[in-house]
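Anyone up for a design puzzle?
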């Protein structure tokens, strides 16, 4: 869908860290063509880009087609007010912007990141010389989730690096793959194959292109699909076909898919589950145990959590 004259309306609002996912999802439900999240950062004064994320509200930017009527804006506000949020939302601010600004502005905040002991996430437009032993994932996320900037992505990447040292050429299943960053990292760390699925029909092409950039396109299958529905390459959901399962979406989705995730793992396989905050950690862990998984670790970064569990 293209806005008239290549112009858009941008809605911005500051959101408490615990409410970011809910507000961003509500913006997409209301018709936003893209949603960007700018966390509150403390930037260093050194030449190298370095920052610390603060616990302050983040700025959520949602870009809508130009024809966003006043009635639509009121409906969006009612939808947001109906959410069960940890803190009240301030007034939304609207501004007309050019599409080219929305498409490129966020890149100013996306730089090379070092995650875990060996992983490096490099934006495709930035140069980087790897150090001995480093594994570099080159990424152009486009409109898909998964840049390595969000806490849950970093938690999952660090967990992938850690468990890959214990697994022998595993087959990977990436549920809600987005940009494909987790699958690609697993493949570059020694996985034999990966299947990356997402309910968003636009993301498989992005994941495939990122796999090509990283030289692992031959080892990954990217498609639209869900564990709850029929696979694009099977008549029924796969059972006990993965040694490493990755699911970084939200607490609601992780809980809903927990039994399907467990069933997709072979005996001895490992699940890395994230997208939930501290207050939901006990519920996610209990659901994993009920599904036949044994928790191995609960990693944390800020309010976000990542559960690593064994089948």
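Challenge accepted. My sequence:
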């Amino acid at each position: 869908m293209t806005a008239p004259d290549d112009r858009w309306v941008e809605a911005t609002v500051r959101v408490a860290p615990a409410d970011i996912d809910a507000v961003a999802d509500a913006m997409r439900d209301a018709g936003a063509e893209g949603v960007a999240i700018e966390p509150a950062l403390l930037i260093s004064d050194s030449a190298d880009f370095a920052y610390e994320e603060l616990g302050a509200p983040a700025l959520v930017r949602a870009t809508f087609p130009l024809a966003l009527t006043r009635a639509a804006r009121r409906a969006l506000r009612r939808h947001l007010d109906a959410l069960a949020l940890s803190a009240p939302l301030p007034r939304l601010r609207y501004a007309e912007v050019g599409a080219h600004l929305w498409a490129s502005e966020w890149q100013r905040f996306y730089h090379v990141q070092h995650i875990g002991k060996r992983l490096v996430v490099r934006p495709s437009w930035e140069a980087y010389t790897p150090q001995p032993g480093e594994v570099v994932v080159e990424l152009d996320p486009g409109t898909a989730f998964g840049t390595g900037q969000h806490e849950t992505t970093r938690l999952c990447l660090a967990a992938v690096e850690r468990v890959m040292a214990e697994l022998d050429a595993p087959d990977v299943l990436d549920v809600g793959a987005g940009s494909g960053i987790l699958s690609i990292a697993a493949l570059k760390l020694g996985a034999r194959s990966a299947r990356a699925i997402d309910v968003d029909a636009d993301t498989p092409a992005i994941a495939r292109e990122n796999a090509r950039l990283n030289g692992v396109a031959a080892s990954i299958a990217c498609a639209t699909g869900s564990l709850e529905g029929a696979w694009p390459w099977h008549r029924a959901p796969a059972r006990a076909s993965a040694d490493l399962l990755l699911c970084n979406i939200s607490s609601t989705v992780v809980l809903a898919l927990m039994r399907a995730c467990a069933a997709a793992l072979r005996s001895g396989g490992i699940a890395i589950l994230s997208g939930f905050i501290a207050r939901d950690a006990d519920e996610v862990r209990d659901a994993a145990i009920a599904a036949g998984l044994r928790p191995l670790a609960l990693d944390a970064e800020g309010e976000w959590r990542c559960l690593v569990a064994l089948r």
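A detail worth pointing out: The helical segments are 20-29, 70-81, 99-105, 151-164, 181-188, 203-213, 251-264, 281-290.
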